[in-house]
Amino acid sequence: MSILELFESMEYGPAPETAEPALQWLAQHQPFDLFINNRRVKPASAQYLETINPATGKVLARVAAGNAADVDAAVAAARRAFPGWSKTPGHVRARYLYAIARHIQKHARLLAVLETLDNGKPIRETRDIDIPLVARHFYYHAGWSQLMESELAGYEPLGVVGQIIPWNFPLLMLAWKVAPALAMGNTVVLKPARYTPLTAMKFAEIVEEVGLPPGVVNIVTGEAGQVGEALVRHPDVNKIAFTGSTEVGRAIRRATAGSGKRLSLELGGKSPFVVFEDADLDSVVEGVVDAIWFNQGQVCCAGSRLLVQESIADRLIAKVRARMEKLRVGDPLDKAIDIGAIVSEAQLREIRRLVERGVEEGAQLWQPSTACPREGYFFPPTLFTNVAPAMTIAQVEIFGPVLVTMTFRTPEEAVTLANNTRYGLAASVWSENINLALDVAARLQAGTVWINATNLFDASCGFGGYRESGFGREGGKEGLYEYVRPRWEGAGGRASRRRGLAEAPASGENKAQSGNGHAEHRSNGLALAGSEVFADLAGRIPPIDRTPKLFIGGRQVRPDSGYSLPVRDPQGMIIGQVGAGNRKDIRNAVEAAHAARAWSGASPHQRAQILFYIAENLAAREQEFALRLVQQTGRPYADAAAEVQAAIARLFSYAAWCDKFEGSIHRPPLRGMVLAVREPVGVIGIACPDEFPLLGFLSLVAPALAMGNTLVVIPSPQAPLSATDCYQVFETSDVPAGAVNIVTGEREPLVQVLAEHEDVEAVWYFGSAEGCKRVELAAASNMKRTWVNYGHPRDWLDPVQGEGEEFLREATQVKNIWVPYGE
Amino acid sequence: MAQGQEDQPRDERNPGVPLDLGWLREVRANRSAVERRAATLPTRRTVKREWQAAWLLRAITCLDLTTLAGDDTPGTVRRLCAKARHPVRSELLEALGVPEERIQVAAVCVYHNLVPVAVAALRGTQIPVAAVSTGFPAGQIALDQKLAEIAASVRAGAREIDVVISRAHVLTGNWQALYDEVRAFRIACGEAHMKTILATHELATLRNVGMASLVCMMAGADFIKTSTGKEAVNATLPVGLVMTRAIREYYERTGYRVGLKPAGGIRSAKTALDWLILMKEELGDEWLSGRLFRIGASGLLSDIERQLSYFVTGHYAAAHYNPLV
What we know:
The complex is a heterodimer of chains A (823) and B (325).
Chain A: H1 3-9, H2 20-29, E1 34-36, E2 39-41, E3 48-53, E4 58-64, H3 68-87, H4 90-106, H5 108-119, H6 123-151, E5 155-157, E6 160-164, H7 170-183, E7 187-191, H8 198-209, E8 217-219, H9 224-233, E9 239-243, H10 246-256, E10 262-266, E11 271-275, H11 281-292, E12 303-309, H12 313-326, H13 345-360, E13 364-366, E14 382-385, H14 392-395, E15 402-408, H15 411-418, E16 426-430, H16 434-443, E17 448-451, E18 470-471, H17 476-480, E19 484-486, H18 512-515, H19 532-535, E20 550-552, E21 555-557, E22 564-568, E23 574-579, H20 583-595, H21 604-620, H22 622-633, H23 637-658, E24 664-666, E25 672-680, E26 683-687, H24 695-706, E27 710-714, H25 721-724, H26 726-732, E28 740-742, H27 747-756, E29 762-765, H28 769-779, E30 785-788, H29 799-802, H30 805-810, E31 812-820
Parallel strand pairs in A: 6-7, 6-9, 7-8, 9-10, 11-12, 11-16, 12-15, 14-15, 16-17, 17-31, 26-27, 26-29, 27-28, 29-30
Antiparallel strand pairs in A: 1-2, 3-4, 5-19, 10-18, 13-14, 20-21, 22-23, 24-25, 25-31
Helix pairs in contact in A: 3-9, 4-6, 5-6, 6-7, 10-28, 11-12, 20-27, 21-23, 22-23, 23-24, 27-28
Chain B: H1 21-25, H2 31-44, H3 49-61, E1 63-66, H4 74-85, H5 90-96, E2 107-110, H6 115-121, E3 129-133, H7 143-155, E4 160-164, H8 167-171, H9 175-189, E5 193-197, H10 206-218, E6 223-225, H11 237-254, E7 259-261, H12 269-282, E8 295-297, H13 299-313
């Protein structure tokens, strides 16, 4: 067309970014081998896989098809590198990370073009969003490396970390995984996504350029079924970090159950985008574009459910449609394209299938009049209205440029609709009313909430899910804990034996406990051997029977089964009975715990008062509790009294922490702030250890309660009476009914019910190694958080092991609320 | 949506509508979100090569070539007018294959006392003379003086009047007063087209910009204009975005198309393209002509000419090869 014609038409023309340098680089380097020990290693299979440009459907390069043997080699390399790298001073590691960040910037355009070629996302996004965030992630974590010795004193790296990343943000997800792992002194085996390995290949070159020691970063490409599987199951891997679908995440959870591997999972989402009638609607429309037409909607935190207040729904939908007409779909290397190619033919088919399903189920489909390219894998921006929560497209993650819309009438209904999902990755709230926006943000079940914004990311802000969107955070200080453990847990740091259990009498001072040799049934603990206090009473008149029931919803209730279980002292004599709880009791306890969720809204000051009060009431009955410990464990009275004292002190600790374990304010590069709020996890099931029947019980109950969770607790089956004695203490201490529920009985079947329960958000288990494995396996049903001890006892008397931030972190999850401001 | 938007003849002026305070209260402008959109407009769209050359020529036809300096003289105004007649060197236009008569600036904009000079200098062309008015730039004179100034400029031959609004009315929330003032300006303008300068920087907030835009349109503005060029900050894309959205809203509700004129600080060809992209994306192709889009600038023309020269010759151009603005 002539310039005069263009002058008249004022059309956009092509504005291609040249692919030439990237194609040359590919030609020079392919086929790509594995990257192990800073060397290019041929895959054991001698096979190579093709990676395709989704914008053309044509082959871009060939990449090694790794298998289990290659994973073995990579893990061995990482293991060899670990001692040196973990002992490298933080400052030195910081220099490496800084150098990586610089090199990312130096090669920014090549990386951006490679990413666009391999993934199909628009060059605008790789150039302006992905790659700058990658560099920022390495800079930020260079900083944490520098500060680790002072800011994470008492923590040490985990070891060899297996990292499996998805295809939607290939290099950015690499950065999110590799940067914190290296900063904290771990070594890495990374598996790039099958569809998008190329920027990881360029990253390998950067690793060499900056001279990172061999083995610190190893990259094994290949199929998930070969490489991913082998990495997940590898016995010498200390942690798996995975980003991807919830289904694969669930499989990883099951595969690693009981292995002791640490796990962080960033999974799927169906994130709500909530618009109130007082929002800036034109800005909302742009928010919608950024939410669901960013990266073709292939974003785990995509705002894919548009929830609009009914009063403005028609206006907003009209505006969204008008805006959709302006979206340009096409060659992702064109600088003026909004929507590029879907990553693969398979993904395109899946999007089509779900869209057809939506139409079949009666939702109304709307697409703009603009055409998609014929070649390559493209899908037009798509809007569904007349959507009901019961429809597939309202529930299932589509992972494509498809938006579903529903309406609400009130803020209450908005929150209910928003939370009506198995996921909890992110949410977006639009309102000009700060009262409304922050209130709703607090009530959304999501790891990230953007107010009047969406899809903002920064290395300083933790990102990760609630519910089935996974667990663990990436970014911010909160993300670092995924790559460290308390130093005492490291080699030799664990308690070498169980303490606080029944012990054989060591000296004559407590021979009385075995001395009187009664074989008869002793009830109620009154006929306490070794206790002068009760000596006179014993045998004269029968003591009043005390039979602990279950403690559910603030009431002492009989077990559903109608059975009781005997409790024996170390000599095998029966010292009492407790209710034999069953699955129905657990069900009732979970319901009671949910009914008591107002506890999470109690002010930290109020919660602190109640914990202090528990301590006060426990102290008033110190002797009784000490005697109960003597009775159950046969330990010396002084020892038991020390445990009671420690328990009182522990309650004080968590009363103190109630209003001091606060969140933080992150400062990403924007005008505004990000509130990293620590929220309670929800309903936590706790299986208590056998050691330290009182201290072990309260060491777990107190932090969970302090942080606003409500609990279903299974006391030690061996020594449950210290826990059941606490009923009266809780009742007299203003603990709200249902905040703590206690179900006695056989620990393993009961905890299994808890671990499988879909309305329980977390399970803590302190018991056998086999029990830990069962809990982790069962927890996969709703991807609940687990905290288990893999059969290693803790020394609960030691404050380093028995209390502190580790417990508080397990009792909370971080929600990052992004609050841009400015009038 | 719009009642009667189909009915409006394309060249019909906005007659204004009664002041609607309820509508005004609905105006929202979330600054952070507006800034994000404004920041990505130029990164989401670009034009290259022939398209860029064509768009730059279009930008010239939207230009209000302006001089508003204390040291303006009849001589400098005549020089400006000569450039307005021939904004691009003939050999460049020839190389671009565009007839000279197609490429003229949209108007020449001067102070009132230089209107006769400009009118005389532009005689024989279609280029209108625009006069800044109503106590430009601060507007701190009495209303009757403002009205008299408008009338005088119209009498002197100005076909466009760039009025400044009383910022005080916006800052005190006295929308009725603002409406009445602009309405009076409009009546005083008569057949002359009225551009209302909001002096957006002095309105302090984007929401004020949105509300002031709406009131000016309700009062019958043909254009809403960002700035005088004399404020600390002049035309910015976030401000332009809020104003284009107000224009769209007004069009959708009333069916009348109002134009936008960014002025002040637009010096580079790239910036001019960004503004054209803003207009195309937010308002559509109808707003890409001088009838509904103006850029108030002077030095900009030199840069555009330089870019066109580069496009034609393939070499970077020196300023002294292009006739002075």
